[in-house]
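Quick one, tokens below:
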């Protein structure tokens, strides 16, 4: 199947629980909220002690501002979730946060709180109420300094551990027009409480970013093509599905990555999908002057491990979906100019090793199809026998993987 064949698939963007980003070439599926919901009015949500009367609300606004600013701080410096203290919460002074979320919060969502810049997952107490108790040790981990009575603790709530993108909406004011910005999220959070050992704080979130204050705007999209497709070579059936583009590694983007395998699979099944595509990325690097492909997950949106990748494949299979595995080498440039034969031999050896590795995983996970997008032929010098190289590589893939095997390529004259 050529690249045009896959690129002509129905472009459908399905909006579910968390924000996603597309890097593949099948169909783009966004897990992580896109701006398809109507924007409704909002109010401020200052922290409120249980025994106090909540402060007054600010006037509503029609929409948030500065929603598409680049992430700050850089991805590589985002904090990891706080580790649990080895000391029982009962043995230390604590701070407890209790929050009531809007009724239109999806049932499969998780709720997180960012304390200083450290994310912590909250426990669901009832339908719309979540709780988190932190010891002084855990607060000190978040601040990276000792915490004593009287310290101001800044924090902000977010859906699904995806920081500012899915945070509670804070109304911009004349004094703070940047309240609904990524920079404000990481520097000021938006809420604060004066720490007093044993204190319990009760909050109410009026609205999430991207969501209206009440209800939910829904968009229905048909999966049926509006025309017939040309016959495929050899009578191969046309496959239509959705690419699942994740911010893969918890350390790189969202700590809630594993929370949504099952709910995403169920959602796709309910919507009538039959195929999904997973595009696990690795990166080109150079070692001793020769090209290497590695899983550089610390600085790229990769799966953290083969086990995580297999877990997601098997989740979709469990729901009766068919899975296309389409590994990609992405995100890092590779200088191919004026390279000697030894370098090009290493290039194709690494490409084969990478693809065979994922072909083995695809076979282990009982995937249904395997695909690789071959770089344009003008990437290579004329001295390279491209047909022989790629036939050898794909021949070795087919020795390992028993499902359908495709390649996409830009056709030259």
């Amino acid at each position: 199947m050529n690249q045009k064949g896959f690129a002509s698939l129905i472009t459908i963007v399905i909006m579910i629980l968390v924000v996603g980003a597309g890097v593949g070439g099948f169909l783009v599926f966004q897990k992580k909220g896109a701006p398809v919901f109507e924007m409704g009015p909002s109010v401020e949500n200052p922290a409120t002690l249980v025994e106090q009367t909540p402060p007054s609300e600010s006037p509503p606004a029609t929409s948030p501002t500065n929603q598409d600013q680049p992430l700050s701080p850089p991805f590589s410096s985002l904090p990891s979730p706080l580790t649990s203290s080895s000391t029982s919460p009962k043995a230390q002074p604590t701070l407890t946060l209790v929050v009531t979320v809007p009724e239109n919060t999806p049932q499969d969502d998780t709720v997180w709180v960012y304390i200083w810049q450290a994310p912590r997952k909250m426990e669901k107490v009832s339908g719309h109420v979540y709780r988190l108790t932190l010891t002084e040790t855990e607060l000190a981990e978040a601040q990276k300094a000792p915490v004593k009575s009287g310290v101001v603790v800044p924090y902000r709530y977010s859906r699904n551990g995806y920081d500012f993108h899915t945070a509670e909406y804070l109304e911009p004011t004349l004094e703070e027009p940047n309240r609904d910005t990524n920079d404000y999220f990481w520097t000021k959070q938006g809420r604060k409480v004066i720490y007093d050992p044993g204190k319990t704080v009760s909050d109410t979130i009026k609205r999430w970013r991207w969501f209206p204050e009440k209800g939910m705007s829904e968009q229905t999209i048909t999966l049926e093509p509006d025309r017939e497709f040309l016959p495929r070579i050899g009578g191969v059936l046309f496959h239509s599905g959705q690419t699942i583009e994740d911010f893969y590694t918890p350390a790189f983007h969202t700590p809630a990555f594993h929370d949504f395998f099952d709910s995403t699979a169920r959602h796709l099944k309910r919507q009538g999908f039959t195929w999904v595509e997973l595009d696990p990325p690795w990166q080109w690097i150079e070692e001793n002057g020769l090209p290497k492909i590695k899983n550089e997950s610390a600085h790229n949106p990769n799966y953290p491990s083969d086990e995580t990748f297999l877990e997601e494949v098997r989740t979709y299979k469990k729901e009766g979906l068919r899975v296309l595995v389409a590994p990609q080498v992405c995100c890092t440039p590779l200088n191919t100019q004026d390279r000697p034969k030894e370098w090009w031999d290493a290039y194709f050896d690494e490409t084969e090793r990478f693809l065979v590795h994922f072909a083995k995983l695809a076979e282990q996970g009982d995937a249904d199809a395997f695909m690789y997008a071959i770089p344009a032929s003008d990437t290579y010098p004329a001295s390279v026998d491209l047909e022989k190289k790629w036939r050898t590589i794909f021949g070795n893939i087919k020795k390992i993987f028993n499902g359908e095997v495709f390649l996409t390529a830009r056709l030259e004259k």
